[in-house]
Amino acid sequence: KVASSGSAPLSEAAQPRDPYLHFDTPHHDFGTIKLGDAPSYTYVFTNTSGEDLELELVSGCECTEIQWPENKVFKPGEQGNIQIRYDSKLEEGVGEHHKTIDVLLKKEDPETGYQIIKEVKFRVVIEL
Hints:
Strands 2-9-8-4-6 form a 5-stranded mixed sheet, with no helix packed on it. A 4-stranded antiparallel sheet has the order 1-3-7-5, with no helix packed on it. By secondary structure, it is an all-beta fold. The relative contact order is 0.28. The chain has strands spanning 21-23, 27-34, 40-47, 53-59, 64-67, 73-74, 79-86, 95-108, 115-127. A hairpin with a 6-residue loop joins strand 8 and strand 9. Helix content is 0%, strand content 52%.
């Protein structure tokens, strides 16, 4: 294995915690799957704000079924999860795909006035 030059990515522990929602694993790699497979994954988050938070909407592409805690208020420090199921039959083709799940909070950023949106991502390679 050859050592690469440049800065190494921050380890999970060294990454700054999000001031609202911290995801244990914000990026998941499904690896290589066969066309027709439908793997699933659960993103675990923690309310890292000092106040109650609620998710307004969690959305992704049509190929991803999402289950999330609707109408649930998370107290500071409380954990929750977002479950996804990726249906590769609904994908446009084989090869490598990168997907984003948008997580909209029922909260506005006090500095900008815009709604707070977080993202989690996943990668998958589909083969025949």
